[in-house]
Design goal:
226 residues; 10 helices; globular
Length: 226
């Protein structure tokens, strides 16, 4: 409310250089998170949620601590994501401050905080590993699209696939987290009874992103044809 009110009688800011720098920071930060996940044991020591905790990892507590530290830094990155909302407001792109945008950013910080306070299971970091990998691809696209209008036009056919990639990510993560609900799963403990809420949140993401995809890439061409 404060931002649009401040901008009401002001021309929109362009912020092209700032946006390019922001996207570079996001690309490098998410690449670093992917690297840190892998160096801390993913694809070598850390198994999926219902897999056993390998002896190698049990004797390497420093890797567990490293993964949890990575998630702590990830919360700071998710807070940094709020810069996007400020950019939308300053550019008078208030339509981009959508329900999807606000819910996505607020819930990310909330669930990451809950994970660090109450769960602390290194196997769940598969969620952040996948998400950061997707964000590397996404922000590379944003950077190139923001470089100049010609690039943006050339890359426009790719844009729907970025949203599809996000949706595939959510479906994959739901499949992984469903293991927690299984009573026979070694990771199924009393403290993880919150898992259905995490899964429900992913379904909300999936619905909101599908609704965005439908309105942006399916309904819009029909409206133009009419």
């Amino acid at each position: 409310y404060a931002g649009p009110r401040y901008m009401k009688n002001r021309p929109p800011y362009k912020l092209k250089t700032f946006i390019l720098i922001y996207n570079v920071i996001q690309i490098l930060a998410n690449l670093w998170f992917v690297k840190e996940h892998i160096s801390a044991g993913w694809f070598s020591e850390v198994s999926f949620i219902c897999g056993r905790r390998d002896e190698a990892l049990e004797h390497s507590k420093s890797n567990v601590i490293k993964l949890l530290n990575v998630i702590w830094w990830l919360i700071l990155l998710k807070l940094f994501d709020y810069v996007e909302t400020c950019v939308f407001v300053l550019r008078k792109k208030q339509n981009q401050v959508s329900t999807l945008h606000v819910y996505h950013h607020v819930s990310n910080v909330t669930f990451l905080w809950y994970y660090l306070k109450y769960i602390l299971d290194e196997r769940v970091t598969i969620v952040s590993l996948v998400n950061c990998g997707v964000h590397v691809i996404m922000y590379i696209y944003y950077f190139l699209a923001a470089w100049n209008p010609e690039f943006q036009h050339m890359l426009s056919p790719i844009k729907p696939y970025i949203t599809k990639l996000q949706m595939v990510q959510f479906i994959m993560l739901v499949g992984i987290l469903m293991q927690y609900v299984n009573p026979n799963c070694e990771a199924h403990t009393q403290k993880n009874k919150i898992t259905p809420i995490f899964i429900g949140n992913l379904f909300i993401f999936l619905y909101l992103f599908y609704d965005f995809y439908k309105k942006s890439y399916t309904d819009l061409p029909k409206q133009k044809n009419n």
